[in-house]
Specification:
This protein has helices at residues 31-44, 56-59, 76-83, 89-100, 111-119, 135-142, 157-169, 195-202, 217-224, 251-268, 280-286, 321-324, and strands spanning 4-6, 9-11, 18-24, 48-53, 67-69, 72-74, 103-108, 125-127, 148-151, 175-180, 206-211, 229-233, 289-292, 307-310. With 344 residues, it is of the alpha/beta class. The protein folds into two domains: 11-268, TIM Barrel, CATH 3.20.20; 277-343, Type Iii Antifreeze Protein Isoform Hplc 12, CATH 3.90.1210.10. α8 links the parallel β10 (175-180) and β11. α1 runs parallel beside α4 (89-100), α1 packs parallel to α10 (251-268) and α9 packs parallel to α10 (251-268). The two termini are 56 Å apart. The model has no long low-confidence stretch (mean pLDDT 95).
Length: 344
């Protein structure tokens, strides 16, 4: 699988997981809130923050039906219009992220957004799940030559493969695929983390998880499945008005996410079965070796009745008891002492 560089971070099969704090529209069109979300993401240890760049007019028809969202009839067009971020923010947000040493990303939802993000030299692009089938947008993003994080929610394996082909045909093979359940929130029964095994077998690309579960267990489980990127929504307060706050992590929860991911990575270790350094004392004291039941004199011939297997393991291993039986004692050995080859 290809190593991918985003900003000053290298993402590969052997690298730490790249963690994106998905701010999205959770700034509620308040620049100061956007800055606070960048700050808390940096403090928590995220590698990058990601926004969403769209215009309601190019994203939804004004005739989109009213939908009930969390018990309230909602005009989707008006909701998106209230959340859209001014593209003038791109330069200011990128500059602030550079100062804070955290990578600035945004998902573009139209051509103008791509061009604006190119103007500020964004490091990579995230293609949102709903845009995977938009061939013209996918092609335009691919032509930038930047790394592409492709979310796959609501799409079949064939549709994902088709989007990958579009990107590759533009000469871009810097792709990270994100397994995603595009429901908000995504419950445990819908996460389908075994799908990550399919990504590994089906595509020769790095893969990750765009996680819309409200807790951290699924992200940690994904680490054990080999993901190299995790994206999780973050908010200042879940009770705030807006489409994405209710399933996002608050500051403490996001900090715990980063801690759990890093601890899980440390816990994964290697594929080698062996003795860890932390086990060496326990191996010496807790494992068994051959001891003697009674005092032995020089010249005695060892019989099995002379021996007992007990701790510690400073003597001859019990695996070699058959080689010990019948040997002649060359020095005195006190009862209950472990037996060494120097004694025989």
């Amino acid at each position: 699988m290809k190593e991918i560089k985003i900003g000053n971070k290298f993402i590969s099969e052997n690298s730490p997981c790249f963690i994106i704090a998905e701010i999205g529209a959770n700034h509620n069109n308040d620049f100061d809130k956007a800055i606070k979300l960048i700050d808390l993401s940096k403090e928590a240890g995220a590698d990058a923050v990601k926004f969403q760049s769209y215009r309601a007019e190019t994203l939804y028809s004004k005739y989109t039906p009213v939908k009930e969202i969390r018990g309230k009839k909602t005009n989707i067009f008006d909701l998106i219009k209230s959340c859209e971020m001014s593209y003038d923010w791109h330069e200011k947000l990128k500059k602030y992220c550079d100062e804070k040493e955290i990578i600035f990303l945004s998902s573009p939802f139209d051509f103008e957004a791509v061009e604006s993000l190119e103007d500020v030299n964004v490091e990579a692009y995230k293609i949102a799940s709903s845009e995977v089938s938009d061939i013209r947008l996918v092609q335009k993003i691919a032509r930038t030559g930047k790394p592409i994080i492709l979310s796959t929610g609501k799409h079949t394996e064939e549709e994902v493969s088709e989007a990958v082909d579009w990107i590759e045909k533009e000469g871009n093979n810097q792709i990270i695929l994100l397994h995603c359940t595009a429901s908000y929130p995504a419950n445990y029964d819908s996460m389908n983390l075994n799908c990550l095994d399919t990504f590994k077998k089906r595509f020769n690309y790095l893969y990750g998880l765009s996680d819309h579960n409200t807790e951290n267990l699924t992200a940690v489980a994904a680490i054990a499945k080999g993901v190299k990127l995790i994206e999780k929504h973050v908010t200042l307060d879940r009770t705030m008005e807006g489409p994405d706050h209710h399933f996002a992590l608050e500051p403490k929860g996001f900090q715990e996410l980063v801690e759990w991911v890093r601890k899980t990575e440390r816990s994964m270790g290697t594929h080698i079965i062996g003795v860890d350094k932390s086990e060496e004392f326990g191996r010496n004291i807790g494992n068994r070796s051959i001891h003697v039941k009674k005092d032995l004199k020089i010249g005695d011939i060892i019989s099995e009745n002379d021996l007992i297997i007990k701790r510690p393991s400073f003597g001859i291993s019990p695996r070699e008891i058959d080689q010990v039986i019948g040997k002649k004692v060359t020095k005195e050995v006190k009862e209950d002492m472990w037996l060494t080859w120097e004694d025989l």
